[in-house]
Amino acid sequence: AQPQATVLVNDAQAHQTISRYIYGMFSEHLGRDIYDGIWVGKNSSIPNKDGIRLDVVEALKRIHVPVMRWPGGCFADEYHWKDGVGDPAQRPKTINTNWGGVTETNAFGTHEFLEFCRLVGCDPYIAGNVGSGTVQEMSEWVEYLNSNQESSITEWRKRNGQDSAWKVPFWGVGNESWGCGGNMTPEYYADLYRRYASFCKNYPGAPLKKIASGPNGHDLHWMEVLLQDIPHWMMWGISLHYYTVPTGNWSHKGSATDFGEDQYFSTLKRGLYMDQILNDQEALMNRYDPQKRLALVVDEWGVWTDVEPGTNPAFLYQQNSLRDALLAAATLNIFNQHCDRVRMANLAQTVNVLQSVILTHGPQMVLTPTYWVFDLYQVHQDARLVPLQLQTPSYVFGDDSLPAINASASVDSTGAMHISLVNIDPHHAIPVKMEFSGSDGWKFAGGQLLTSARVNDCNTFERPDLIRPTSFSDVRQSGNVWTVQMPAKSVVVLTLKK
Ligand code: AHR
């Protein structure tokens, strides 16, 4: 008999909310993410609002990006915010030492970023400079952003064109402090966190959700020291970064498009390891914070390949294939399943850098396969997680194997259920038999499919629409038992209504 997957849908147990912030993004002053990708300047012939390109804004609005992290990344710990406010002609030019040593004009600064967030309709998440900035500098940035009291700092903001405080809700205290953010020990960082965070004040109506610079992937020691050494009331959450490098070798990461099944398999295997990382980090957090007050914030994740041939290696410009979309969909399923602890995640990065949702070339814009995953999955934002019991055949490659099917489900505020299914097996369609334990009476109300002929396929400036969602209805219903025929290498999102 053909192997099939079975899913028991516990629709009566939908208690936990999937925070919309799991569907967040990250934009750094790196390569062409900000400059070209988001900011083209007021005099550009590319349609823009005060310098911010409108095609990108519209695309991000359509997928309801809920939060944007900025200005880095490594850039955050050498960024001095005062360089990026006031008359653009007077702003100092600095060197972006992390990303190619290029000149940073500071044309895109605090006001421009917050205007971008306003246009997109997302909340800002700013990462402050611990590595090379002072406590006073960070403290004054928070005042500039969030205070409506009369002070020299807030008067300066008003003179720069912003009367009332923006009330930025999310605040990162440094970035990768174990690495580019200062190469610190966790004990030293924990002490610095306590000091810096003490002076990031909560102004009236603007309580800050402060996020500590957490571990590199599976580094449990870093996490444990932070949990022991920082009073929990001082943090809203702890961040975690994990990138999927196809070969596992940072010197030869693997091509974004030119790969065989060996690298397809290893990319999925390394990416799905996110589940193990979260299980282990959460087990540690549960020991120190059993009430789950602290959030785990996966504020950098995604596939990191070699750059596109002929592009600046420091700009991290890579194409984006169906493989990357399958991994994004599987990863978002993992985050949904961990929503009791994972309350924010930020894909790295938004435009033209790493696993972007958007690529630009002059006035042209391409929406990547990963973009379409975020489009399909937006139905889970702030919906209630429906627990699933899943049994799946394996996707076998050589003498190794992975679970072929992964899934997550939620019920939204209108009572509709959405089930997102991924089949990572590139060769075999797999029937998925679903049963509902809570209630019957669900009716099929539509489906969307994302797939392509090859896992290497991508959307290019010549063929921007090769990979797009299409409607899907290969669903058979017999009483309370449904069978969904999942095509090979595909993502399907189903809508069910009563
Ligand atoms: O996203 C690119 C870089 O990866 C970020 O700047 C840094 O935080 C991480 O190492």
Q: What is the global morphology?
A: globular
- Class from helix and strand fractions: alpha/beta
CATH-scheme architecture of the largest domain:
Alpha-Beta Barrel
Described by its quaternary structure, the protein is single chain
Task: Let me know the CATH homologous superfamily of the largest domain.
Answer: Glycosidases
Q: Ends: how far apart?
A: 33 Å
CATH topology of the largest domain: TIM Barrel
Radius of gyration: 22 Å
Which strand order do you get reading across the main beta sheet? 2-5-8-9-10-11-12-13
Helix content: 10-25%
Question: Would you spell out the secondary-structure blueprint of this structure?
Answer:
Layout lengths: L4 E5 L14 E3 L21 E2 L2 E2 H9 L4 E4 L23 E3 L5 E3 L5 H11 L2 E6 L6 H12 L5 H8 L10 E4 L12 H13 L10 E4 L7 H10 L7 E8 L16 H12 L1 H15 L6 E9 L18 H16 L4 E7 L9 E4 L2 E4 L1 H9 L6 E3 L1 E4 L2 E4 L2 E4 L1 E7 L5 E7 L6 E7 L6 E8 L19 E2 L3 E4 L2 E6 L3 E8 L1
Parallel strand pairs: 1-22, 2-5, 2-13, 5-8, 8-9, 9-10, 10-11, 11-12, 12-13
Antiparallel strand pairs: 1-17, 3-4, 6-7, 14-15, 16-20, 18-19, 20-21, 21-27, 22-26, 23-24, 23-27, 25-26
Helix pairs in contact: 3-4, 5-6, 6-8, 7-9, 9-10
The structure holds alpha-L-arabinofuranose.
